[in-house]
Amino acid sequence: MLFFLSHGLLVQKKSTAISPSMSFTPLYSDVVIPPCDEPLPKEMLIPEKVVSWTVQEVCRWLKMKKLNDLLLPFVWHNIDGHSLLALHAHRAEGVVEVLRHMGATRVGISLNFYMFLNELLAAPPGPTYQEMLVIGGVAALLWACL
Asked: Above 50 in pLDDT, residue 2?
């Protein structure tokens, strides 16, 4: 095990073993996850505090939610509280696509992340893809009638 200082945090060099649920680019082989075993205190789990979260606090939240497969891509892409809020602006399909681009290949993990993020930020989930198709079809039908 190798320890070194990165971004003011003492981090541990991980083995290069890759989770079978993730497909990583070679860049992920050098990613080290900051210490994040301790859960976040309840006072940090409110929407107003999320924006100020560091990457380490995001990792602690992911571990609390048992989303360990997302730790490597979130550290590599430097996902902090601001980034979580940007992800929250997407609908489920957008979040799944962003996470797939980051290396999360299992849709279930991505949808769980989306559900937990909505729960954290106390926002109702947006319309599903099927609902958007229906809304779009109705709008197209109305436009054709004009």
From this structure: no
CA triple 138-140-144, angle to 5 deg: 115
Residues 71, 90: contact at Cβ < 8 Å?
Answer: no
The per-residue pLDDT for 56 is 92
- Closest to 58 (Cα-Cα) out of 68, 15, 102: 68
Domains and CATH numbers, the chain: 37-145 (1.10.150.50)
pTM: 0.64
CB 55 within 8 A of CB 36: no
pLDDT digits (tens, 9 = 90+) for 118-141: 889 874 445 555 555 565 565 555
CA distance 144 to 121: 39
83 membership: H or E segment, kind and range: helix 81-88
- How many Cβ atoms sit within 10 Å of the Cβ of residue 131? 11
Residues 6+ apart with CB under 8 A from 115: 125
